[in-house]
Specification:
By secondary structure, the chain is mostly helical. Helices cover about 75% and strands about 0% of the residues. The protein has 3 helices and no strands. The longest helix is centred in the first third of the chain and has 23 residues.
Length: about 70
């Protein structure tokens, strides 16, 4: 098998691993927030990551959810 034939599956695997790590770490949440903010409030400045984390923490404190574990 040639090297070119192995590059695409390896690249796909690395993209999958990157996606998974961003999802479980919460990094993808901010990206989704930015896209939604730009869609709903066009022309307004998107809050910084730090401001987003503060908003998220405040929301979790004001709206607690019970969990089994």
């Amino acid at each position: 098998m040639r090297a070119e034939g192995l590059l695409e599956p390896a690249a796909r695997l690395l993209r999958g691993i990157r996606w998974y790590l961003r999802e479980i770490s919460g990094a993808a949440d901010y990206d989704r927030f930015c896209r939604q903010h730009e869609h709903h409030y066009p022309g307004e400045t998107v809050p910084t990551r730090r401001a987003y984390e503060r908003l998220r923490a405040r929301h979790r404190e004001e709206n607690p959810q019970s969990r089994c574990c």
